[in-house]
Amino acid sequence: MIGKKIRLSNIINPETNRTCIIPMDHAVTLGAIAGLDNNLDTIKSVARGGADAIVLHKGVFKLIADLPEASSKCSFLYHISASTCLSRDSNNKRLVSTVEQAVKAGAAGVSIHVNLGSETESDMLIDFGAVSDACMDWGMPLLVMIYVRGNNLDSFSVQNIAHAAKLAEELGADIIKVNSPASPKDISTVVNCVKTPVVIAGGAKTSIVELINHVNEVLEAGASGVSIGRNIFQTQHVEETTRILSDLIHNRLSYTDAVLKVKEELRLE
Fold first, then answer.
1. Among the options 52, 147, 174, 261, which is catalytic?
2. What Cα–Cα distance (Å) separates residue 209 from each residue in 61, 89, 236?
3. What is the spatial distance between Cα 161 and Cα 92, in angstroms, rounded to a whole number?
4. pLDDT on residue 134
5. CB of 53 within 8 A of CB of 109?
6. What is the pLDDT of residues 167-193, one digit of tens each?
7. Number of domains in the chain
8. What is the rounded distance in angstroms from the CA atom of residue 250 to the CA atom of residue 257?
9. I need a surface site. Which of 59, 123, 150, 176 has the fewest CB within 10 A?
10. What percent of the chain has pLDDT over 70?
11. Where are the alpha helices (DSSP H) in the chain?
12. Alpha-carbon span 185 to 35, nearest angstrom
């Protein structure tokens, strides 16, 4: 699939086989949270910082056509799953757009969210299958954000995360986003159970130095990069933090130099 291969090369750097993805789809789920209350400024900062791709919902896609300074610097993934924290079942992610609309919008790829263990898991898997088929038809890369949530399941168990990654690969994901298990060894277990690129979530809000530690561990464990939202767009230094992480991911900065940049240039601990 030539089209899919070309589009994937705009998301995963072909020189490093790594990617820095910044999801900014959170406002649909959580509302006007900090960092997304003026999301166009945040998008511009993330793009200037060197992110490879930003995940957005369709309404924001209509706005980025007027942001050539952003669209010329990074790719955009069209997120087509949604639920809200106001629902009695916020784990029930349903489709709110189509792959065809993503193609028309000029997206580099499509993104969906699936929660295994949810009461509506079967519905989400049906949606996953349909989106995967459509992505094959249209030559669109598919990022699958897949988690284990609900029924008192352990969301950070290496067995559960590996199961989620394996399922995502089997059903056609081109990039798999999962939670980070507890240790680097467990991250390696997840990454090595599939052939598809795996990116690791950023996790709970933390300091920039701790974030760099996390990203470095993820890379050393063999992941293809990260998909980090709140730890980027809710910082005081969105552009600078994105640049440091992108440079670390793509071997333009060593881990030691990345930490030094944070402490010396941003004056943070």
1. 147
2. 32, 35, 14
3. 18
4. 98
5. yes
6. 999 999 999 999 999 888 999 999 999
7. 1
8. 13
9. 59
10. 99
11. 2-9, 26-30, 39-48, 58-64, 68-71, 99-104, 121-138, 158-170, 184-192, 208-220, 230-233, 238-249, 255-265
12. 33
> Residue 247 phi/psi, 5° resolution?
-65, -35
- As a whole number of angstroms, the distance between CA 224 and CA 155 comes to 21
- List CB contacts of 112: < 8 A, sequence separation 6 or more: 79, 80, 81, 93, 95, 127, 128, 131, 142, 143, 144, 145
25 is an active site residue: yes
Catalytic status, residue 147: yes
Residue 107: both structure tokens together: 């997206």
Nearest-angstrom CA–CA distance, 135 and 139: 6
Say if residues 114 and 144 touch (Cβ distance below 8 Å).
Answer: yes
Pairing of strands 175-178, 198-201: parallel
Question: Which residue range(s) make up the domain with 121?
Answer: 2-265
Q: Of 30, 126, 25, 110, whose CA–CA distance to 75 is shortest?
A: 110
| φ, ψ dihedrals at 66, nearest 5° | -95, 10
Q: Which of 25, 52, 127, 247 is catalytic?
A: 25
Q: Find out whether 61 and 105 touch, Cβ atoms under 8 Å.
A: yes
85-139 pLDDT tens trace: 999 999 999 999 999 999 999 999 999 999 999 999 999 999 999 999 999 999 9
The predicted-structure confidence for 146-164, as pLDDT tens digits, reads as follows 999 988 899 999 999 999 9
- For residue 17, give the CATH number of its domain: 3.20.20.70
Which listed residue (78, 93, 177, 186) is catalytic?
A: 177
> Strand, coil or helix: what is 56?
strand
